[in-house]
Amino acid sequence: MIPNKLLRCYRDSTYSLMVAVRQVEIQFQLEYNTSVDEFLDSIYAAGADLGDSQIEEWAKSIARSNKMIKLLLSSVDLLRKNHKTWGKNNYWILYYAFLSPHELKNTEEILEELEKHVPSISYRTYYRRRQAAINALSSILWGIFLQRGTLE
After folding, report:
1. DSSP-derived 3-state class of residue 149
2. Close Cβ partners of 144 (under 8 Å, ≥ 6 residues apart)
């Protein structure tokens, strides 16, 4: 199931993306004594084409990863705002299970955090609702993929 795997990779992916962006920023600062944005703006303003350079490949890779993360987050937000009955609760379940910046240690910690938003949720209900939230998110993501055809 793609959304389940995608959600499980979310924290690592966002961290890797931040590290990659930071590494590129540092390398640009050291090599060109400028920021990436300033460098690219000046190159494009001058009409230069970076072609298949390493800089262009880094930029494309970072952009693709960033698009995937934004697509996932916008889909989760769509689920939160528009799902008929459990939209907000599904959002909080996905947030604490997969999306929060710091991974919680176990289901008990997730349930403690969920208590703020979804009172009196049991283990069984949590696992059932988590799967339902993943399924709902899957429907949204597949709909977006089918409409767009690709991430590009």
Report:
1. coil
2. 71, 75
**Beta carbons of 59 and 44 less than 8 angstroms apart:** no
Global pTM value? 0.67
**How does pLDDT run across 6-42, given as a tens digit for each residue?**
677 777 777 777 777 777 777 777 777 877 677 767 7
**Residue that the structure tokens 């995608």 belong to:** 6
pLDDT 10s digits, 124-134:
999 999 998 88
Q: Return the percentage of the chain with pLDDT > 90, whole number.
A: 22
CA 121 to chain CA centroid, Å, is 26
What is the four-CA torsion angle of 127, 100, 95, 150, rounded to 10 degrees? -110
Distance CA 70, CA 55 (A): 22
38/34 Cα distance (integer angstroms) = 6
Side-chain half-sphere exposure of 65, counting CA atoms within 13 A: 19
**Residue 6 CB neighbour total at 10 angstroms:** 20
